Amino acid sequence: MTTRILTGITTTGTPHLGNYAGAIRPAILASQQPGADSFYFLADYHALIKCDDPQRIQRSRLEIAATWLAGGLDPDKVTFYRQSDIPEIPELTWLLTCVAAKGLLNRAHAYKASVDKNVEAGEDPDAGVTMGLFSYPVLMAADILMFNAHKVPVGRDQIQHVEMARDIGQRFNHLFGQGKDFFALPEAVIEESVATLPGLDGRKMSKSYDNTIPLFTSAKDMKDAISRIVTDSKAPGEAKDPDNSHLFTLFQAFSTQAQCAEFRAELVQGLGWGEAKQRLFQLLDGQLAEKREHYHQLISRPSDLEDILLAGATKARKIATPFLEQLREAVGLRSFRTAVQATSEVKKKAAKSARFVSFRDEDGSFRFRLLAADGEQLLLSRSFADGKSAGAVSKQLQQGGEADVRVEGLGFALWLDGEQVAEGPQFDNAEAREAAIQSLREALAPQAD
Ligand code: TRP
Q1: Is the dihedral of CA 312, 6, 56, 108 positive or negative?
Q2: From CA 370, how far away is CA 359, in angstroms rounded?
Q3: Atom 13, ligand 1: which residue's CA is nearest?
Q4: Rounded to whole angstroms, how far apart are CA atoms 79 and 85?
Q5: Residues 135, 136, 137, 138, CA torsion sign
Q6: What pairs with residue 214 in β-bridges?
Q7: Residue 270: CB atoms within 10 Å
Q8: Is CATH 1.10.240.10 the right assignment for the domain spanning 216-288?
Q9: For labeling, which of 15, 206, 210, 292 is most exposed (least CB within 10 Å)?
Q10: Ligand 1, pocket-test mutation among 6, 9, 39, most atoms within 8 A of CB
Q11: Residue 380 β-bridge partners
């Protein structure tokens, strides 16, 4: 069985090492495993919650798309798309919003943190809180549930959101599934060793702390950032404590076990911090230089990136569109046509036994009639030069093609794809004509078996 892996990355910033080690790299590796079916996307609707600077949103989407591809993501193997190219996502968000308990969302960490901050500052608890922030977990649940993801690789701060997606999905299944589960229940996956990388100052590497090491900017920028990593004040020659050094933690996130053991030994033996920073730079540059070059090539051809992402959206929507159709159906947003059919067994039978009969006219042309169950003629087609075209049109009608009935005096004509293809008989009065049109519609409505 394949495991569907899905994750999104919010497009508000420029990817840094922490994003790479914590999310992007493990996701790309996972996508290369046999049996993996991966969905990776730019969470650009989520970005709008945090950022109202259009330039920054646009720039970040481009940079993040290029980062994933340069990092080795193969868009032919995975489904790689922008959230905002999938209109089914906001639609599913609404269906889920209607089953998500407000109390559940009140408990979301991100929202609670804002409220706590406001309360502390003596403000209204909801000051500056948008509905976007409040509903953030529902949008995320839609991302995940839309594609029935089993595994969702995320940072620790997102575990709660994946759990909420489970909750909301379960509730929807329970309310509308009628014994069948629409949604698979997702699980968060955390890369234990490198779940969150420390930044320059030892706190979690994050744009909001301004302590990041850029991923694909120049080697010089990377070197500059590394030189700003905070260490203790032990002099060269003094033994360092690797387990209390975030420089070591950073190194470990990119090294093999052997490299790591060697670096640890050197630190214990008194390697100077300057040297240690140089080692870290070499390690990172060795792993990232080639990818960095690829990244810059990609960024310089944005229309190629656009094509890749649109192709990804098409692939994603092949799943999303029919699935959403089922969900709409489940909650009661159904076509009236199917609803009438389902409740009217008699009409259904009548419709079922209406039949197309083809024949050759005196002049050698081909035609067909549509006869109701009782043999009454509902339609007579126009003449076709050959049997094949006549057959194609009757087939299209049988399969429920969008037929357009136009009243003409006391008769009517049937149009298909902008062309008149058949006409009904003439009637004595308008009532008789309307009744015949009604039977015709029933005969042509797609059959729900
Ligand atoms: N909220 C996630 C973050 O900030 C990004 C995200 C959006 C996501 N939708 C998702 C992650 C769905 C996993 C699955 O990191």
Answers
A1: positive
A2: 11
A3: 7
A4: 13
A5: positive
A6: 16
A7: 14
A8: yes
A9: 210
A10: 9
A11: 369, 423
CA distances from 219 to 40, 141, 205, 281, 300 (A): 27, 38, 19, 9, 18
pLDDT in tens, 228-261: 999 999 999 999 999 999 999 999 999 999 999 9
Where along the chain do its domains lie? 3-100+135-192+301-331, 216-288, 345-448
> Would you say the CATH fold of 345-448 matches that of 216-288?
no
Does residue 64's CB lie within 6 angstroms of at least one atom of ligand 1? no
pLDDT the model gives residue 375 = 78
What Å distances lie between residue 42 and 36, 45, 66, 84, 339, CA to CA? 19, 9, 11, 8, 38
- CATH code 2.30.29.80 for 345-448: yes
Ligand 1 pocket test: which of 12, 143, 151 has the largest number of ligand atoms within 8 Å of its C-beta? 143
Q: How far apart are CA 248 and CA 267, in angstroms?
A: 9
d(CA 134, CA 19): 24
**Are 219 and 191 within 8 A, CB to CB?**
no
CA proximity to 182, closest of 316, 319, 284, 365 = 319
What pLDDT is stored for residue 217 in this prediction?
A: 85
CB atoms within 10 A of CB 371: 17
Contact 190, 159 (CB under 8 A): yes
From residue 278, give the alpha-carbon distance in Å to each of 164, 174, 289, 386, 408: 43, 57, 15, 80, 86
Place of tokens 């009628």: 178
Angle value at C-alpha 322, between 318 and 323, nearest 5 degrees: 105
Over the stretch 171-226, which tens digit does the pLDDT of each residue have?
999 999 988 899 999 999 986 765 678 999 999 998 889 999 999 989 999 999 99
146 pocket-lining for ligand 1 (C-beta < 6 Å): no
314-362: per-residue pLDDT in tens?
Answer: 999 999 999 999 999 999 999 998 655 555 555 555 455 778 888 888 8
Q: Report which DSSP code applies to 242.
A: G
Rounded CA-CA distance 155/409 in Å is 69
Angle at which helices 430-444 and 345-353 cross, to 10°: 80
Q: Is the pLDDT of residue 398 over 90?
A: no
Q: How many helices (H) and strands (E) does the chain have?
A: 18, 11
